[in-house]
Amino acid sequence: MTAHNNLINGSWTPGKTSSPNTNPSDLSDVIGQYAQGDASDVDAAVAAATAAFPAWSVSGIQARHDALDKIGIEILARKEELGDLLAREEGKTRPEAIGEVARAGQIFKFFAGECLRLAGESLPSVRPGIGVEITREPIGVVGLITPWNFPIAIPAWKIAPALAFGNCVVIKPADLVPGSAWALADIIHRSGIPAGVFNLVMGRGRIIGDALVQHPDVAAISFTGSVGVGRGIAEACVKSGKKVQLEMGGKNPQVVLDDADLAQAVELSAQSCFYSTGQRCTASSRLIVTDKIYPAFVQALQERMAKIKVGDARAAGTDIGPVVSQAQLEQDLSYVEIAKAEGAVLATGGSRIACHTGSGKEGFFMQPALLVDSTPQMRINREEVFGPVASVIRVQDYEEALAVANDTAFGLSAGIATTSLKYASHFKRHAQAGMVMVNLPTAGVDYHVPFGGRKGSSYGPREQGRYAQEFYTTVKTAYTLA
Length: 482
Fold this sequence. Notes:
Layout: E1 3-4, E2 6-8, E3 11-13, E4 17-23, E5 26-36, H1 39-56, H2 61-77, H3 79-90, H4 94-115, E6 121-124, E7 130-138, E8 141-145, H5 153-164, E9 168-172, H6 178-189, E10 198-200, H7 205-214, E11 220-224, H8 227-240, E12 243-247, E13 252-256, H9 262-274, E14 284-290, H10 294-305, H11 326-341, E15 345-348, E16 369-374, E17 389-395, H12 398-406, E18 410-411, E19 413-417, H13 421-430, E20 435-438, E21 454-455, E22 458-459, H14 469-472, E23 473-481
Parallel strand pairs: 1-5, 8-9, 8-11, 9-10, 11-12, 13-14, 13-19, 14-17, 16-17, 19-20
Antiparallel strand pairs: 2-3, 4-5, 6-7, 7-23, 12-22, 15-16, 18-21
Helix pairs in contact: 1-7, 2-4, 3-4, 3-6, 4-5, 9-10
């Protein structure tokens, strides 16, 4: 069995123990053994990053550009291979996985360009004879804690800007999916970036993540994951004065109005709710449908769901792969039962199934679930499930639909299906979400634009695009007497 070690100060370092990385499409398939570090590994990685920071923070922008561009080029050249690994360990279909890998490569190439676009301001002072310069500088050692649902894209959109703006990195990937992060670390390791600038420490969140958050030499934490963990990280960072950035989740609404194109509304809803097995923080899980179109929409969506093929993530023709783990599968199934107990009607799906490929391999497969006749106050419409489970809420008109859409503790993504310019424009302005989609799936965003939400979904500056500099840099104002 191949051993995959942590990367600390430019060297592959064994963990105190290791754990298997198992394919959720085939539980007999062990991808490899991956290191499990402890607090001492975090100490060593942070020490290496701290030592590397003075030189890297003032390194030439061309060298940074070349390294990040080289990383992006290799990722894109190997997207089929890396996509197969991602599908194997996380469970999203191979085409989706290849697309995610391509996005990671594009992110590195985008931030390679940002190295050359670092800008500041030169202003006159209100006092004669004095000049003012406003510049951005790196913040220091950054701890990155990433989730399992996008095991290469999210690490990429945190690592690339951190390095581009002159920071040093210690990353802890999700324990469920270390393979993609390890492969990315291997590419970064061979890019020419100096030892210590980038470090990978794998292991349990409560060990590695806590050690990163509590370490006095870590200047900032960027975290993507659950609300409960995120709030704990925010509290700890505020106490110690660390900069913090959180992406935590969503309960994203998809509004369907009476005037919507029915076929379009059904397809974008199916894509938003069920593809990637519903394991996207931008996935729609609340379908808010106005009265007149409700019966036709529900019937058409059930017909569309009947065509969805659940099976091995790497098999040709699979639409939806497995849920990522046994624990996640149990959570998904439990929410279906909770919704039924509260009065929602299970229209279709909602049970564990065998792999549809006929291989006989055991995996964490679930038939996508559609719950109808639900109400806004049911738990299924308040809490994030994070699986292929969607509920439908019937409303009278646009005004009620907007009110229900905004009636949530989250605010990441929101969508509307309509042919009305009036309602589309009003929804874009009044939906309480960081990202709004009109006649498009709620899941699916570009790599060069800001990503993030409002309310309980996000805290701190946006990720991705040029907005990433708000988190990964600090502003300096300098005065000069002429």
